[in-house]
Batch of 4 targets.
Target 1
Amino acid sequence: MIARRMHLLPTLVFFLIMSTTAPSLTAQIAGTSFHDRFQALHANAPGQNDSARLYAIFQTWYEYGMHEYPEWATYEGYPGGEDRLTDISMDAIARRKQEMHWPLDAIATIDRAHLAPGDQTNYDLFRRDLEAQIEGQRFAGELMPINQLGGIQQDIPQLMAVMPTAHVKDYENMLARLRALPHAMEQTIALMKEGIARHIVPPAVTMRDVPQQVLNVIPDDPAASAILQPFNDMPTSIPEAERARLREDAYAVYRSAIVPAYRSLHQFLISTYLPAARGTIGMSALPDGAAWYGYRVRQTTTTSLSPDAIFDLGMREVKRIRAEMEKVIASTGFKGDFAAFTNYLRTDPRFFYTDSASLLEGYRDICKRADPELIKLFGKLPRLPYGVIPVPAYAEKSQTTAYYYPGSPEAGRPGYFYANTYDLKSRPKWEMEALALHEAVPGHHLQISLAKEMEEVPQFRKNGDYTSFVEGWGLYSESLGEEMGFYRDPYSKFGQLTYEMWRAIRLVLDPGIHVKGWTRQQAIDFFRENSGKTEHDIEVEVDRYIAWPGQATAYKVGELKIKELRHYAEEQLGEKFDIRAFHDHVLGEGAIPLDLLEQRIHAWVASVKTK
């Protein structure tokens, strides 16, 4: 799973980012308002050709995004807004929704036929993303800004952790953002109040841990708060007197602004928001909820599959994988049925670490064994390094088993595979190989880092986040384990099948919950009956599907498409098939919709045939 950074901000807008070689048109109209810049691009006032104007639209929309969403600019290593937080007032959100038409109107004046093939793809993806975002504006997701997986209670500590820390000015910027936090909190609460008024509220079950998450970031001792961690380890290049002053300023802001702001949020959650939360769990219970869910499924899968078709696909996959799991059980010599075997896996002490450090060391060992195997399967590998670290304590109870947090070459930040060390009795060893291959290499870190390192493409292509591609690749990567020398132990092989089954179960549970009226307990029971996942993991996962409608459907859909394309290429090319070339072509354009991936692989197969 990819960590969804800055939960409060609309994700898709961040994909619309500049080319590193934007033509001079942008420089000619810089210094004017964004509205005027887009108007000039629409009218083609400078008289540029269509290719130059296309890249100027990319550049201008990038600069607009960095200005409107300064937290994202920090994550991307783009300077200039480090002392600000995003305006998430309802007026600002409404304004930005209208302003999304500016680049769409401008790009509509470009003659696609005049563009080179690569720029036609850039044009198509840019326009497709904008149109999808505008289509989704009818659904007011911004009115549910908090759940157990994200929100201002987690975003601010995450933001502080990635801010620059080399100079006094960097810490002054942190302090400015922290002083702005009470206003951001007021805006967040205002969104939730509007959601209550419009009956757009989250299910109560997704909110039960959030009040404690809020309290977790405001301990009595400022030095113990995750928000102020950067002030605890300041570089020696900053004079000691300045370090002392900045730390005291941070503690003062903590006591006078941060703690009161979070306490006001906590009080609002307890007294108002939780009582107003829904007893229902399906998205269909929301206003326009059935259409909203259908939209989310289309966007996450990049297909036209209906919720019913996804449900049926899931049931078929559950049946197929269950048969494979039964074969593995038989190979172990275990005497007992499926339920007895999975209970054995969930409870026998041999399958669990007894301390967090050993769990993390186990993951690091798997990753280091995976690294040298990559060259056998890929012709091109990323330069960006990665590390393995624990999920932050303030969020670990409600977080999933693991997630990947992308790095940034521009910001000088590596990627991180976050492993959850909460409740070690729910973190079995037999799942670790599959999970590490998914989150690190050859999964998320390899794919996302290669995308970020692409050259001569607009930056929005480097940050593509088509869930069916990104998570489909992560799940496909788990299946590469056997080719890399993993899953030699039958329990690890069962773990790999458990993880594949986990994603097949999602195809059943997600539409089951949001369209077919399944209860939470019904979903938990189906999950338990068909997998070896531990009870805590099952409950966290089901609650995740409740909180993120549609997102979980993309994994299996994407994985099956990649496997289908690999089978097609192997069948068509025979001895000419090269697994390294196939993987390089799957990943070579960054994340793209599945229909474009299919076109790309078919074109590659045809070109190999003619050689």
Target 2
Amino acid sequence: MRPRTLDEYVGQDAILGPGRLLRRAIQADQLGSLIFYGPPGTGKTTLARVIANSTRAEFIAINAVLGGVKDIREAVDRAQRIRGEQGRRTILFVDEVHRFNKAQQDALLPWVENGTVILVGATTENPYFEVNKALVSRSRIFRLEPLGEADLRRIAEQALADPHRGFGDRPVALLPEAIDHLVDVANGDARALLNALELAVETTPPGEDGRVVVDLGVAEESIQRRAVFYDKEGDAHFDAISAFIKSCRGGDPDAALYWLARMVHAGEDPRFLLRRLIILASEDVGLADPDALVRVEACAAAFDRVGMPEGRYHLAQATLVVATAAKSNSIMGFFSALAAVERERTEDVPDHLKDGNRDAEGFGHGVGYLYPHAYRDHWVAQQYLPAGLQGQVFYAPSDQGHEAGIREQVIQRREAQLASVEVTAAEPMGLTTGPDDPLLHRFAQRALAGAADHMAAVRAGLFERAEVQRHHLVLELRARTGFLTWEALRRAPEGGVVAWISEADPAEAARYAGTLREQVAALPELLRPRVLTGPLDEAAATLDADALRFDRVLAHDLLGGHLERLGDLPAVLAARLAPHGRVVLAEPVPRLAQRLSQLTHPEGLPAELHARWRDAEEALHADVDARLSWEGPDLAELFENAGFSVQVEHGAVERRLRVTARLLERWWTGAWGERLAATLAADDVDTLRRWTRARWVDRDVAWHTGLAWVVARR
């Protein structure tokens, strides 16, 4: 049932969905060196086979477990011969690339560097740990995530329906509770699911009606225990021990017991854990509780005498001593945590708890971790348990002895953490990394260099709130001059950028689009942003032309001050956003605009007249019947009605403005001046016009623009 084409491939939409760089590169047959990294059964080798079926290049496959330097040399010789005779490229696929030793990887490196072969590697281990740094620096790395429930169900359905490679040629009834069990225990591993399904069907005799019925009992027999992905020398080890240490340091016994149970269940050396606890007893408890080290040492000595499995009591007790800085006899909480590991789906380590020593820049591991010693009382509320286990209680302090003294503290901190952590499904972070493209970097620098300071501040504010990742697909609304396009290209090199020029006038839209396309013509075709044109009120037709799902939608001054221009755009964007997608807007708000009466000091102007001018302006901006009388919450409501969760904050950007006679005349004769004249007496207006002409013309003033920052999440 291994997929043979991109259309058959299931899952990994975040890096392989429509419009993503990897999909475009495969379809265009323009691949560079790649490394696929992820747990077993997520589709790494399958993706390489799809590439083999899609490319016009020669495709050579090596398994690093079985191959060596001799196989590499043979592949290189073949690649050189094919390039010389046929002018074709060669893609070298190395499965389990981390199994190559340093000498084997070094033998491969020069041929990757000079382009003789294009490397496509697959590994279950973090390439930053196990793969030659030179190979890593020359490759784009794509992290494949465990498959979701919907993906696994789709794979099972395909297997049951396919008459040639699956069970479509025989009557099989897979009961709902059976597929629920298989999907749950498969834990994101398509191979485990298919193996269990095959075993269930092949070992179940047909009934009297000829059907093979797979019920819950058969499913449980076919896949009895969830596999916990863990390598004691790999990435999972470093991430889990990092989370364990940080949980102990942060005073969270629930999280500490959970990570302990996860490592013990996976076969981690208990003596290694005890050594870490002995260090922690001095490093993070110290003189705050001088007896902690003595108690942990006693637990370690008791463990050496008793051994496994009963030694788990002493290991759990030492963990609780460090996490609470007090001796506890409530170590049965460890077995509650162990039961959770066996019962629940394996949850990923939150990114901020992962070990970021070597790959923080590439995958964002460790980013966002709050160091408790930097906070008052050496504690800060933050997430230590996985998102799916927030609120789970493993440690229940008793009211006996010294433990009674820490009971209240544990309960209070538990409540504070629950109040501070929003329990939501976290967006996958750092799914790709790779070398920056110097051409794209220089191009973006030139394109961004001319922006005024206040515009650069708006752009920086948008990207700060958007948190664009390298694999994201970004849509810029009202692109026009490429104000956000170049920065989006720089930040999402393995994703893609779509620039939508949403001007209502077709001629004006065509002019902007032509200019934008000319500017990006120097970039390689794969890196160029896609340019769309069409008015906002035709959003559905414009965006439905392709089955793209955007991770981020960005815009500055989308509405031109007119809220009604938004129309049904929020609903259209809701349908076009990927999971965890967000829309980030920086919208100038007319009601927060600069008041001319407060632009400069009213020197030489009668106080009563200045007061009437100021009051008239405030009344004008507060007029509920005025078409521009809206603020951020009004805009937020339109997105909330489309099913978004919205955050709004108001702010302002300031710039220096040169007031010319022409600009001043436009103010007084335009819509603002006409509406002000309807409120003030004619003599007052004449006096104000003469005063502003004498005081402001050909002078620089500090002009601020009120903004509504809107972040709408799906």
Target 3
Amino acid sequence: MSSVIKRFTDFPHWVLLVIIGSLVFIPFLGNVHLFDWDEINFAESAREMLATHHFRTVQINFQPFYEKPPFYMWLQALSMSYFGVNEFAARFPNAIMGIVTMITVYNVGRRYFDKAFGVWWALLFACSIFPQMYFKSGIIDPVFNYFIFLSLYFLFIISIKDEFESNKMRRKNHRWYLVASALAAGIAILTKGPVALGLIVVVVTIILLINRGKLNFNLGDLILWLVVIILVIAAWLSIEIRANGLAFVDNFIAYQIRLFRTEDAGHGGPIYFHLIALLIGCFPASVLCLDAFRRNPDDTHHQLSFKRWMIVLLVVVLVVFSIVKTKIIHYSSLGYFPITFLGAYYIHHLQERRWHWTWRQIVPISIIGGAFALAVGLLICWGATNVPFILASLPFIQDALAARVYWGLGEIAIPIIFAVGLIAAIVLTARDKVTAGIATLLISTCLFTNLSLALIVPRIEKYSQAAMIEFIESRKLEDCYIEVVGFKSYAQLFYKDKKPPQSPKDLDLNYIYFGPTTKPVYIITKVDKIQSLVYQDHFTELYRKNGFVFLKKNDMLTPH
């Protein structure tokens, strides 16, 4: 028996983490349609790259799309070229990024603490609710955040001195880490934009002030760092500018300013929005990290320094995205790195008996975890019993909630098992069985999240967008136009598998709505928008379903 245990403990941890990450992130990726706006938006841009073979430019509806650089769409296009144009392929790059992130944080934790610390950090990333969800999504942020963290990590390595390194080796490593940081920063900018550079600079500046100007950087380092970043960006931007002029740069900057100053597309919220989102959404890591901010005298200088960098990163994320007017949950997802680190830091000291399991962990775990279990349980009971949702006042929501969706009471086992797991975790940890208790907490949270994504989210989608996507897919083989009116969507592009335009008329809405088209024209709107259609006399209503209204253009029309 001892030999079996020894073999298990000697087994490379990173291999186990790859297996765990694969089991957590890859299953059920294509289980539900992509969601408007972001998931379908990015997947559609990748699909259009494959359709047109124009990979330098991000497009939507085969027109330049100035809101995002192309790096993430390149990853999706690569995935789609292998798996086909579907939901699985659109989300697969983030699943891989989830595994890569687990291995990266494991190695960072192992380097400055120990292997157990690295494993806990990786598992907190895999099992906390929002981090697990965003690695199973098709949004940009997992890739964007990873390269920002990587850039900061290499700068951190430069900022500390290894007493066992010779001066020659230190100078060589210093240069390579500087270049690696700049490359990572450049890729982050190519993924989502210059906000990556801003976040990195702000974090490093604050660290510089805290260290009273001592950071092992000089002016030459800064120049080299910026030159490498510029070269990375220029490798793509020079081609784009040569082809389309400065249009991308001008429009992209205007879009970033609009996000900062205004509530884009109604995504507003209070200034504490991201604080609450991270506290609730990053459960249980967010709860475990609450006691981790205090200093421990047993930590080494490098451990204290890295912890300081992580705390500064968390504060910068909270302050910056609290100031930004547009409030979307995943905007602050860079905060998952410091939160999961601080959670692992707390577990590390809990196992070393330096800290204790108290009401400060028990109460928030009970409240937040219990709230998740209760919310999902009530949702399942409501769906299974078909009780009218009396709080729905808007016509679209009323009709959407009237959708016929099968709910089985058997799914109630999901929140029940989660609740039992929470209780078991609290009891085990309180009895000094820390490893068993934390493992129970993470496993129960992971199962709860994964089963909810696999069984609950597809049912929720039936109430939101499924009727619209089903209509679009039913016309996928028909040579026709499909447009949405009164709301914003990219579904009519991606799920119609829209072909590149054969003439300018194919993109002219005035021609499509009023012109003598040779193809059928379908319009999708919502029940609360139908009365505002100024050209509804030109269309015949086909049917209504779950808040959507589907219309077809009448034959033999003349221009309006």
Target 4
Amino acid sequence: MPYSTYRPDLMGSAVLDGPARMEAGSMQELVLTYTCGAFGIDDTGSIKIGFRFATDMGAVQFDDPSAPGYTTAEASNGAPLQLKWEFKRNIRPWSRSLYVGVSGDYLSPGDRIVIRFGDRRQGSPGIRMQTYCENAFEFRVFVDAIATYDYVALPISPTIEVVPGPPVHWHAVMPTLVRTGDPLWLAIKGEDKWRNPADLTGRRFAIRSNPPIAGLPASVEAETGARAVRIDGLSIAEPGEHTVEIEFDGHAIRANPVRAASNGECIHAWADTHGQSNETLGTNTIAEYFTFGRDLAFLDVIGHQGNDFQITDEFWSELNKTTRAFDVTGRFVCIPGYEWSANTAVGGDRNLHFLHEGEKIVRSSHAQIESMETAADDAFIADDLFARLDPERCVVAAHVGGRYADIVHAHDPVLETAVEVHSSWGTFEWIVGDAFRKGYRVGIVANSDGHKGRPGACYPGASFFGSMGGLTCYLVPELSRPAVFRAMQTRRHYATTGARIHLDIAADFPSPVAFYDRDPASGAAPAGTVNRVGMGAIAESTADKMRFSADITGTAPIERVDLYDGTERLETLRPWRLDGPSRRLRIVYEGAATRGRSRTVLWDGRISVDGNAIERAAILNNWNLDRGIREQNPAGLSWSAVTTGNYGAIDLWLERPATGHVRVDTPFCSAELDLGNWDGGDQHLDCGGLDRGLRLLALPENMHETGLRFSREIDTPVGTERRIWLRVQQEDGHRAWSSPIYVIRR
């Protein structure tokens, strides 16, 4: 339950010295002065300075005055003070807190405690600010004046504005699939080193396309204060794939390819339907959350998924009003919903998406809601939740976050149409495997579950989150809420780790097959007969074979494509080949420790090269600037990285191919490779845990092929079911997962 509400006006005040605006990720000294109120603070009383769960402000420490994060506290009357940094020992959302206890003395009304975060008086460089932007980064002050350990929040706590630094990363974004003649747009943004959209004031961008795009200007200039440039009113007259290049200040970037189809049955709608604002556990307000997704992440579809046990009836009403206000057909689709946040033992996290506003919220508990007026509506276990929902008005996806969804424990074949394979928490292909092993017919989605106010462009910063947030591409006839909701119901979508990869799959049959919109396990009847089905379809065939086809256009060169039937990998395809020994070696580290919150794997590794030399090295999927490649010389390097079910990699370009030895040492396992006796194929080493391991493979020194089309004839024996899907992996570390095509052979 919330903190005590007893007389906050008598508990004192707090002020913060220094500038009102600070750059994200900058080193600062933050001086907070608390002045005691009418009670003073009794012996063994204390105050706490709380910070939001999502913050990745630098670590607080009390032992080394010359090191980052050194923090001190002094009482104006000389009273002894005890300091403790508490991680997740404070009531959420103020999960991180500095405890300042008074011991052996007391403070009188008007006495002060001066707290210096990043105290520079003895050589500390300061403390690093959180790495993402926030309009009001709050130092929430709680006071236990009477030594009861019953804290009262001050009515006003100090805040500062956290702003972006200068741009160093650049992005150009376009739709991936449109119809010829339909409106089209191009967006450009720059991000600071921590991936916050940065000020572009006065920057001019030269633009060219191949083939030409109608309405595209030769150049555009950013307006004052703009953090992105968007050009509307474009169109493509003829079918085909187009690329757009942008040049500025000596830089050149390319947008994701855009494909135009004549009379196509669908367009692509890119979505992040899972994140939170500061009304629950996230950052910035709900309106700012939706604005970021629309204007700075360039989403087509967005949803908000606050934890149900924090969503008051008042906020539920506000959330519904906000989705209604932001939802504009043809421009920006907003999906009302929430996260049913039960413990894993009774079902685990589920994302609920509604067709309309005004639905009743059925919570997993009232754990952080004072009013119990609607507690009778709670559903404590997943089966009870499913029984309360109408599948014509609600779609459910199984989520892996802090609490993971246990779909083996509970699943509804009509309501629960998808599992979330990737988010900022990591990659979770095991939940897809759970679904296949249980015979479920689900689609695959990815979202951010972002807590940092950056839906659709969510990076982990310096926190324990291990991945960039994902995106889901919905295949829709139009950009509207009913169309997106229908795509959710029928599994017409695919997932990526954030890159706007074009992915299409289909199955063709020699004779008509019955297809289902809803899982026939629920008793649903066929929706009709066709000779071809696409992404997410469920088909019932009488033929011995089917022809599966895939069409992929990446945003970077394609490293590999894995074709699966359920959990069985049928084939690995690579659109490149090694014509001889390569100087390029990729060392992959991947996996998680467990399914739950303690899944993080810290890879502090060392690579040693004997009989050859490292010419250069690069790291993939390292989003935390505190980690990465450390010491490096021709004979080896060290690195630090984390995985949370996803993967990272070190690429080495050696002086000579097929020469010498490489050794990789990590806390979990070690690998050795004789380059002179190696054909360049994958070498895999199991390191325990949950798919935790090392892989070593050779790649071409330079890769170029971003597209791949292929087809395969697949047998469909009587009495079997095929679950055909694929995973795309790019050279730059991004992945995509198709939803499966399910083919039942009676």
